[in-house]
Amino acid sequence: MNVINTRLPGVLIIEPKIFGDARGFFLESYHQQRYRDAGIELPFVQDNHSRSQYGVLRGLHFQRTRPQGKLVRVTQGAVYDVVVDINPQSPTCGEHVGVKLTADNHLQLWVPPGYAHGFCVLSDVADFQYKCTDFYYPEDEGGLLWNDPELDIAWPLESPQLSEKDSRNPRLRAVLNGE
Which family does it belong to (predicted)? Predict the structure, then answer.
């Protein structure tokens, strides 16, 4: 596998080694020692799978006191995946990385604990799967407004479909000020 560092500390793009022929392909979606060697050492405690239709935007989510690391990938369709640094002590606080993840490119994205994360669906349907380093606690969930001008994220959709909760997420400044 090939591991690509991004400009955000600890956020990695992972290109798995793919073995393919006319019959199809094989890849290791997770191998504890190889991922540990890449710096992903936290244990995974929960696997999630979501399916969304074209134009859906989920996020930008995080957990306040029990942050989750997430190893994410797409197994059907395509998404534009975004990670935002929300650590006020980080020199990259407020910066983001965006990556197109597809069932065809097989890329994975490692989102360490302490980042906000979200994605929008670019295909008719997308299956999004991820491993988490902590359990989901609804009472601990936080979010950032997907189109906060301070974040300046170039989402590939102008009018995404949002949950009511995500449409009311606060801006980065409010999150950093503890509001």
Answer: Belongs to the dTDP-4-dehydrorhamnose 3,5-epimerase family.
